[in-house]
Amino acid sequence: MDKGEEDIALTKALLEKELEEKRVRAEVEEKRKARRAKEDELQRQLRQELEKNLEEKKRRERPVSPAVARVTRVPDRGAFSSGESSAPVPTPKFDRGAKPTPASQARARNFAPVYTLGQRKAGLTGLRNLGNTCYMNSVLQCMANFTVPAEYFMNHFERHLNPNSETRGEIAREFSEVLRALWGGKFQAVSPVDMKRAVGRYLPRFAGSTQQDAQEFFVKLMEWLHDDVNEVHSKVTLPEADFNKLSESDGAKEAWEFLAAAEKSFVVTTFRRLDASTLTCRACGWRSVKYDTNMELVLQLPADNSRYDVRRGIREMLSPEEVEYSCERCRRPRKCDKQLHLARLPPILVVHLKRFYEDHSLGVWRKKQNFVEFDNQFNAGEFVTWAGGRANYHCKYRLFAVCNHFGTMEGGHYTAYCYSQVRRTVHHTRLLYYNRSLIN
């Protein structure tokens, strides 16, 4: 084949590739429009049902406060929760008159409850320790005190159950039953026996009575819950997408919808943020952009035991890092700046303070003892610089729950502080301390 024929073949191949790319983009756009229409319809139906339930409660019980009515709209609460700090926060409620589904009727849960003397307010129920399950109890109490997630998993999750998930909805159902027990207002404390048994069945290291890491449990719990209510029932492998030619605003929008083709659930929209990772060549200015969703804002504590500020940690996490990379424009290794950008924050922002580290000199794991400073209220929107913040809808956050670890790697105990939606009198603070079955 002479050079002319090679050029013709190459041109033909390029045209075919361009046509294929156009076809794929058209299919993605068509699917995106269909997903958006379906999502709008589901939101409309959910809004109508919630409004109908609220109207029925008005007739049966008492007028619904404006704070509770706000739950029927787009959730904007936010272990930080977004929303205005001065607004009242409604308490999670579930419909006692709702007919149980056959799955939840199948058997009674073994909560081994401790009954309270007299009337007890909903949301003030402790979790008894089952060996060394404080790691699980602290996470469950933190999750239970968030209004919108608690209401969703008590009242609405079953309509979105994924029949092809790893647990076939078992983790979501057991989590729902724990929430109902905590918010039922009947018990002083309960034992999450069935929840622990289900967790241990799908991840054996949680089956025994030994101490485990609360952060690892939280991550796995959220993976299970997302999988159980993922509206995409079949496993989808997304093709590699190129967003480099789009503006930052359009790229963030398209990336969020593109990723939703594989993972679309209440957990994603409530807890996951959208990040943009860039690689910029210092020589020619070439830049590559990749998008991804993440649930935790992981902050590295300093090596010494100095005081640490959360804002400082976020700034350090978003600082550029020098790396060597083969620039696609220069076609040679170049020094590049690798940088993470926050593009879209979730209604509930989870911050992970990474305290445990491996001491390579001794071959053991240790815990950093830094004192951490943070504000009860802060504007995280100041850190969202991607697209000038136009792709972000949540900025102001209030500290809502903290999962604590006391002790060292050799031994310790987990507790939780949670923003109280029940005790709001002048005699009580809004932050309650959850320690096993004790609440104060």
| Structural category | alpha+beta
Low-confidence stretches: 60-78, 83-88
Helix content: 25-40%
Identify the overall geometry: globular
Biggest sheet overview: 5 strands, mixed
Q: N- to C-terminal separation?
A: 84 Å
| Count of runs of 4 or more consecutive helical residues | 11
Strand residues, percent:
15-25%
Radius of gyration equals 25 Å
Mean pLDDT: 83
Number of extended strands: 20
Numbering strands along the chain, what is their spatial order in the largest sheet? 7-11-1-16-15
Summarize the structure.
The chain has helices spanning 3-60, 66-69, 102-105, 134-144, 147-156, 170-183, 193-202, 214-228, 248-259, 266-271, 310-317; strands spanning 80-82, 114-115, 126-127, 187-190, 273-281, 287-294, 296-300, 308-309, 321-327, 332-344, 348-354, 356-359, 364-367, 372-373, 377-379, 396-399, 401-407, 412-419, 431-435, 438-439. The chain contains 11 helices and 20 strands. The model is unreliable at 60-78 and 83-88 (pLDDT under 50).
